[in-house]
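Quick log. Single chain, no ligands specified.
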Amino acid sequence: MDKICKLEDFADKIGQLFIIGFDDMSVYVLKLTHAEALSLRGKHPASLRDPFSLSFASEDERIMPQQMYTLSNEALGEIPVFLVPSGKDKKGVYYEATFN
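-> predicted structure:
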């Protein structure tokens, strides 16, 4: 994806898979679970987009460190995203990405 990501790009992708591919040919699969607008309070007037957040879940037990990843999605192509782990339970690991 060569443009600025916006909430509208993800809102209809809930439930879709996003894949992180690694140099060793392994992959890490994430499912988009939420896409929501964030408060506009404090938004700079010249901002390129309204702030939003994405939530992902993975059934993989590995916890990926917070950093930039390239996520691949069938509809959106490749997207650079800074992912932060936000929790883990018996169902898997959860991640957040915030776009300001």
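Residues 7-10 form the longest helix (4 residues).
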